[in-house]
Write a structure and sequence with these properties.
By secondary structure, the protein is α/β, with parallel strands linked by helices. It is about 30% helix and about 20% strand. It has seven helices and 13 strands. The protein has a seven-stranded parallel sheet, with helices on both faces. The chain has a two-stranded parallel sheet with strand order 7-11. Helix 1 crosses helix 6 and helix 3 packs parallel to helix 4. It is globular and about 55 Å long.
Length: about 240
């Protein structure tokens, strides 16, 4: 019998890649805001909908990728950070988790340059300076408070593929003008190819003890080589 997996944010940039990696070998309940392409529609912001949907369900694994990084929530005035926290509560509060392995996709945005270090370690004190980063840190704490069989927190560096580099471009290109700029203070940028994120999820599924890891590519980038990295791929 195939292990049962709940995958949230299944239609997203990262979630869809995880779904593709799991769908043949696991019994995946892939939830997304809209039910299409094999995904199950579920509004994770609606407490009643979640309570009804999760009633009497149990999963061997929960892979929680659903999150709102920026922008506005359609038909809602709820702040982005509050929404991320509510989604997480609506998953954890209505499921029996004692036999479940939970993998939560967090973010290196729980840190900041207030750490005053070029290379961030999981042992460094998180100091989020954005609403998104703060919400991710709170969700990590919610996970730690559950009675799940094992708990895995993956703090992802900014995720990309060779065909999706726009978010990375914002780090070295001025908006609108698309002009490259460099800060006076040299910075080191860590990136995470989506394949690395999927690999980290699969590894966590076979890890029995709790874990907290930063997921990123083997090599980091200076401002200059990040600019070259993007320009080479004709981002402009």
């Amino acid at each position: 019998m195939k292990a049962k997996v709940l995958l949230t944010g299944a239609s997203g940039f990262i979630g869809s890649q995880i779904y593709a990696a799991l769908m043949n070998d696991f019994d995946v309940t892939a939830v997304a805001s809209k039910g299409k392409q094999g995904y199950t529609a579920l509004n994770l912001l609606n407490e009643k909908d979640c309570k009804d949907f999760f009633n009497d369900k149990e999963f061997d694994f929960i892979i929680h990728t659903a999150a709102i990084a920026h922008g506005k929530i359609k038909d809602s005035t709820m702040p982005v950070g509050e929404a991320n926290i509510l989604m997480t509560k609506n998953i954890f509060n209505f499921l029996n988790l004692k036999n479940t392995t939970i993998i939560f996709l967090s973010s290196v945005s729980v840190y900041s340059f207030k750490n005053n270090k070029e290379i961030i370690s999981v042992n460094d004190q998180p100091i989020p300076v954005t609403e998104y980063g703060e919400s991710k840190l709170i969700c990590e704490r919610l996970l730690k408070e559950t009675n799940a069989k094992s708990k895995h927190i993956l703090r992802l560096a900014p995720v990309y593929t060779e065909h999706n580099l726009k978010d990375l471009g914002k780090r070295v290109f001025l908006p609108v003008l698309k002009t490259p700029f460099l800060t006076r203070q040299e910075r080191i940028y860590s990136l995470c190819h989506v394949d690395q994120a999927v690999k980290a999820v699969m590894t966590s599924m076979h890890t029995n003890h709790d874990s907290l890891v930063i997921v990123k590519d083997a090599e980091d980038h200076t401002q200059e080589n990040l600019l070259s990295f993007l320009t080479y791929r004709n981002l402009k």
